[in-house]
Design brief:
Largest sheet: 2 strands, antiparallel
Helix content: 55-70%
Mean pLDDT: 88
Oligomer: single chain
Shape: elongated
Strand content: 5-15%
Structural class: mainly alpha
Strand order of the largest sheet: 1-2
Low-confidence stretches: none
Radius of gyration: 19 Å
């Protein structure tokens, strides 16, 4: 989904996910290099036409925000990572994450255990 976007458009969408609704000026300030306002507006228009960005009027002028929920975008991105790097195996991806347990807090490991238990409960129904 988002991976199909050209790098600059993807950077703009990433900025919007990170910062929330933003104006052209705010987006320009967050970009990795300088772009004119008209170039940013042109990319936002393309993103809007593709369904990735929504525009709304505000007291600051037009603000732009992602039109796809961050949960949906995360799931899509993660699905692609699992497909590409783990041959579609969620188990292999989870094992790789658990291999990073040295950097995890006990509370994060506890949360993972609860999520696994909940997933098992859902399967048994």
């Amino acid at each position: 989904m988002l991976s199909s976007l050209p790098p600059r458009e993807r950077e703009i969408v990433d900025i919007l996910y990170e910062r929330g609704a933003s104006t052209v000026t705010e987006i320009g300030e967050a970009l990795s290099d300088d772009l004119s306002g008209s170039a940013i507006r042109a990319m936002l228009k393309r993103l809007e036409a593709k369904g990735f960005v929504a525009r709304a009027a505000s007291e600051r002028g037009f603000v732009y925000a992602p039109s796809v929920s961050d949960k949906t975008a995360r799931r899509s991105a993660l699905s692609q990572v699992v497909r590409v790097f783990f041959n579609g195996s969620a188990t292999s991806a989870a094992a790789a994450l658990l291999g990073m347990q040295d950097g995890m807090k006990a509370s994060e490991l506890d949360e993972l255990e609860k999520m696994i238990a909940k997933a098992r409960e859902g399967r048994e129904q």
